[in-house]
Amino acid sequence: MTSYQRFTALSELKQRILSQGTALDDIITAAHQRNPWFTPEQTRHAIHANLDLLNQVDLENWIKPYLGNFAELSDKTVGLILAGNIPMVGFHDVLSCLIAGFKIQIKASSDDKILIPYILNELIDIEPEFQSRISIVDKLSNFDLIIATGSNNTSRYFDYYFRNVPHIIRKNRNGIAVVSKDDSKEDLQKLGSDIFDYFGLGCRNVSKIFFPRGFNYTTFFEAIESFSEISNHYKYNNNYEYNKAIYLVNGDEHLDNGFLLLKRDERIASPLGVVYYEEYDDIDQVKRRLASEAENIQCLVGNIDMDAKISKVAFGESQQPGLSDYADGVNILDFLNANR
């Protein structure tokens, strides 16, 4: 299978999936039945976001610096341990390995065992030569490289277990936002997407906001009111109500709009239904904080140009990463190229 065949098959995949109508509806329903967090609306959002990566021109530009090395197929197998916190969260890893010509062995999360296998079956139908290069397994074996995504706890296990093979091990990270006094109501409305897409379960979701001192929080709550229907999801609302009860019992100061809690806290990772915040007087103060927390930050949302070496996106775009927006800032293509 040539690199051209890989490009062509992957670029055809989007139209094939999105044209399936009832069959796609059935897959989305099955994913929701398996995992209540994967609502049809959120799953469709994820499918479109991931398939939008499969533009042939974008794929060719992305792979161009490596094309000489990736032109031929590799005999090596990459073991992929995928997360399941949001729909299709491991698709970029799968795409990277396949387009680079590697075999893949996938251990899917129990929370997301339907969507990626379905997508890959359709890819195999387009290009049957992928059949021998894709395996979905319950236990990894006979792999040459590892890309694993998990929690801070599981990462320690992964680091030890896979210490003798080249690996990328990912830990917990979160999105943060920096709001300035010049940001518009529309910016704050878009920030709602960064907070609430996938119910806030993704590593790119905003869990911490820096506001300028004296900020009018009523303005923020009014801007995100259009997301109030999130409280109709029982699992999200259970988390919101639980954290609200804890804060009330403990007498913890917080702000509440009926579906989101704002709590002043220096930590980055907040519980579901809660966003932590801090106030700043000087943007240099924020830059110093970001530099000290860089290993815990997946992306930075906002209009302020920051010096920190952290992936930066505009308001509303945290859950729309491009091909070169690598998780944890680790370039997968560089990793594959170095271990070919």
From TrEMBL:
Keywords assigned by UniProt, alphabetized: NADP
InterPro entries the record matches: CoA_reduct_LuxC
Domain of life: Bacteria
This protein's record includes keyword NADP: yes
Pfam families: LuxC (PF05893)
Record-given protein name: Acyl-CoA reductase
